[in-house]
């Protein structure tokens, strides 16, 4: 069971409790943000990475005002539903939420997490999420798109099967992560995989992991994820329902619209 | 309208919402405790049709029952095996064995043209309901 944190930092009204030395060497190069969203692509992908890479729980995030009063029990240990994970080689940090963020908290949460990433010296903010398409059932291989806050990131994807997201709306925490990243000069890279909107999509998550692995060199085998796809869908049914409600509150349906200034 | 009337209306609306919420939770819980789960589904409206995709993980699509009436679409399906989550305290004694859901059909849907396709590898089904001309 986790004991008392080594250090607690406050960003906005968000408390980040650390159980690790944030300044030890090497500095994690990437921070992967995982918040329940379209098709739970992000949640399924990141849960698999935590399990497959045997990441250690190194921190938790809480807030008296931005997050609901929830404690999640794992192995009889009460922790926040928003957790920080890291592999032994300290290659990356992962912020994983087991609950959808309340829409009113999204801006403060993303702002605080990006400030924390800056504090600990992370170079890239990464995420994998779903891009809802109505014909997902007919797609054998979902397309992966990339959106970034930095022009040079797009250049690295010029060859290969990952397409740059050229036009369109993005709604939710990842939309803010991109905007804030550009304004603050962070390198934010979001992989968007074609997926169902409100049905958990482990297959899309596997494609997202592959894109993430290629960009950040984090090798993760997705065989087990695909084998357990049915069980994962059953387990994540309730989270998908809650996430659907949160997405509707955030006007997620706007992602299907063409922007006025389409060029 | 007096302040009292306004507050009475707000109180009534809150009471209605709470009752609606409680009914939803009670129905979900009573189904869950009897091993029945409501599948996730997504509805997409096109100019000429409605498409409903239902997710039935571990569903035995050979034992799928689909009943369509003017007002509702009822879907039932057994799981190929019972599923239990023993470490999940509130459901530790529950075996999930059957999917059941009843959806309201939009009034402009033409049920005579309904078509169902199954994807057994992904345990998904799609119901297409054309719109009345």
Automatic annotation (TrEMBL), chain A:
Fetch the InterPro entries from UniProt.
Answer: Proteasome_assmbl_chaperone_2, PSMG2_sf
Record keywords: Proteasome
Q: Which GO terms describe its cellular component?
A: proteasome complex
Transmembrane found in the keyword field: no
- Pfam families, A to Z: PAC2
Gene3D superfamilies linked to this entry: PAC-like subunit
Coiled coil feature spans: none
Quote the protein name from its UniProt record.
Proteasome assembly chaperone family protein
TrEMBL record, chain B:
| Protein name from the UniProt record | Hsp20/alpha crystallin family protein
Gene3D superfamilies on file = 2.60.40.790
Domain (SHSP): give its ranges.
31-133
Name the InterPro entries on file: A-crystallin/Hsp20_dom, HSP20-like_chaperone
Where do transmembrane segments lie in this chain? none
Coiled-coil regions listed: none
Protein family membership = Belongs to the small heat shock protein (HSP20) family.
Query: From which organism does this entry originate?
Result: Thermosphaera aggregans
Taxonomy-wise, where does this protein's organism fall, top ranks first? Answer: Archaea, Thermoproteota, Thermoprotei, Desulfurococcales, Desulfurococcaceae
């Amino acid at each position: 069971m986790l004991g008392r944190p080594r250090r607690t930092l406050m960003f906005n009204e968000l408390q980040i409790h650390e159980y690790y030395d944030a300044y030890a060497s090497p500095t994690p190069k990437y921070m992967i943000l995982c918040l329940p969203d379209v098709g739970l692509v992000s949640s399924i992908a990141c849960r698999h990475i935590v399990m497959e890479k045997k990441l250690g729980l190194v921190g938790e995030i809480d807030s008296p005002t931005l997050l609901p009063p929830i404690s999640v029990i794992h192995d009889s240990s009460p922790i926040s539903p928003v957790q920080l994970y890291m592999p032994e080689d300290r290659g990356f940090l992962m912020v994983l939420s087991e609950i959808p963020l309340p829409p009113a908290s999204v801006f403060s949460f993303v702002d605080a997490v990006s400030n924390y990433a800056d504090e600990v010296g992370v170079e890239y903010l990464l995420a994998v999420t779903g891009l809802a398409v109505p014909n997902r059932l007919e797609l054998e291989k979902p397309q992966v798109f990339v959106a970034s806050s930095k022009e040079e990131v797009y250049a690295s994807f010029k060859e290969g099967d990952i397409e740059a997201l050229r036009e369109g709306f993005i709604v939710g925490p990842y939309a803010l992560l991109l905007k804030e990243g550009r304004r603050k000069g962070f390198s934010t890279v979001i992989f968007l995989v074609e997926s169902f909107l409100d049905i958990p999509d482990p297959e899309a998550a596997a494609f997202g992991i592959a894109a993430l692995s290629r960009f950040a060199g984090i090798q993760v085998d997705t065989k087990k994820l695909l084998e357990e796809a049915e069980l994962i869908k059953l387990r994540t049914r309730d989270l998908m329902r809650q996430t659907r409600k949160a997405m509707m509150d955030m006007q997620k349906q706007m992602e299907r619209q063409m922007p006025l200034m389409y060029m | 309208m007096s302040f009292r009337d306004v507050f009475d209306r707000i109180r009534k609306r809150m009471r209605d919402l709470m009752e609606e919420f409680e009914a939803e939770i009670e129905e979900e819980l009573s189904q869950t405790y009897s091993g029945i789960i409501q599948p996730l589904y997504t509805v997409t409206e096109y100019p000429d049709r409605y498409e409903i995709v239902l997710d039935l993980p571990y569903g035995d699509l050979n034992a799928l029952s689909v009943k369509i009436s003017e007002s509702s679409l009822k879907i039932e399906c057994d799981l190929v095996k019972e599923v239990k989550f023993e470490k999940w305290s509130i459901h530790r004694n529950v075996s999930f064995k059957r999917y059941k859901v009843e959806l309201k059909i939009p009034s402009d849907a033409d049920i005579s043209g309904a078509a169902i396709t199954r994807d057994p590898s992904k345990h998904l089904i799609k119901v297409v309901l054309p719109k009345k001309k």
